[in-house]
Amino acid sequence: MRNFKIVTITSLLIILALALLWGIQGIIPGIGPSEEEFEDVYLEGHDHDHDVDNDELYKNELKQFEGEIKLLGVSIYDEATHRLEENDALVTLLKSDKVELEDFLNQRVKVQGIVKDTTRGDQKIMTVSSLEKLSEDGVEKFDEINYEMNFTYPSEWEYALESNKVKFTQKRNGEDISMVMVYQYEDEEVPLDIWLEDRDQNLFFEESQVSVGNQTGVRRTIKNGDEEIIKTYVRGGNNYYELRLVDQDSIVKGQYFELIDTFESQGVVSEEKEDAEDLDISEDAKDLEEESEKEKQEVGEGEKEEEKNEEAEVLENEEEKEVEEETNTNEETQEDEGKSFSSLTPLTNSELESLMSKGFNPFQGRTLSFEYPKIWYFSYLGSSQYGFTDHTTYTESNSEITESNSRVLIFSGTPDTSCSYKKTEDVGGSMYTVCARETGLKQIVDKIAASLEKE
Description:
By secondary structure, the protein is an alpha+beta fold. It has 3 domains: 37-133, CATH 2.40.50; 139-265, Mog1/PsbP, alpha/beta/alpha sandwich (Protein Transport Mog1p, Chain A), CATH 3.40.1000.10; 329-454, no CATH class. Helix content is 31%, strand content 35%. The strands form 5 sheets. Strands 8-9-10-14-13-12-11 form a 7-stranded antiparallel sheet, covered by helices on one side. It has a 5-stranded mixed beta barrel with strand order 1-2-3-5-4. β8 (158-162) and β9 form a beta hairpin.
């Protein structure tokens, strides 16, 4: 009986001790992964034909880093293929059988994997098991083939490549809204100030010099109806670039200026152009010599010149008379009923009534002033030509006006362009023609033509 009690008590004590030990293991939390879990992760990045030694296993660490992936280059660390850098400093060497590191070259990423010491040297190497591409402070970098420029832009923007331009848009209420346009004009050889003379003619703008990345450019703030369009121009190598702000939102405006601060051009001035410029200098000296020689010859030809001048005056008077007669005949051309020379959908009567009821806005350019429909948009198209169009067409054309999407045009002189109705006016000795590309716009043409004034 006594022995039975001893056995029973001993058994109870053993059970109690085991229960207590189990409870302690459950109460104290484990730190890091279990041995089995860690061994599985470790083996993913290592080839081992032998059992994993626990002492060796815990010398390695599962870690996560952020940085920019770079090629390793020539190195004693032949076990690595790439390196991860942060602020131009090495974070760790990289290799991977799971992730194609080359696809993320020069991009900012977050990598995760086992880190161990290199077999040679005193560096760390990560066997990358996962990788995530990062946006740097909410921005992306534009760097496309065939475009000799790069810059950063907001990561929520999207872009499309079109011929010589890059169009940036952002979705708002399900619609793609144009933010910024960046144009690349290739192989332009004239200086920037000369090149700009042919741009934004007859538009009222404020101009100033600004920094564009590490270069100096020109900024023009243009008033176009109720809109304010900002254009920044800069030269890079043989190319010119135009960075145009389209959206009117103040936040987008700030993002546009940040884009300009990061702009870099990769164009290089060609040796041929430099040689040509050197040649021009010597040619200038040669031209001066030739001019001097010509002046001597022309002294003895004074009488002949006078005769030519008299003939030229007679011809000029005859031409002025012909222009005057043509003006009288073409001052008002009757509308070609039912015939349109535009591919645009004609405006309805109610749209025309609304347009006229809103009135007209005055525009004062550097050489020409006129009035235009208040709810329309206009733009200078080059070669003394303006285009006007309605709001719907303007927005559907990505906030751009061209000759093909203009409902009304202003030309200098008498154009060859076909018009449903046109009116030609003598403005300060220069002939200007206002042309409707479709029927029903006679009142608008008459109003614009009557308001034309030379500055």
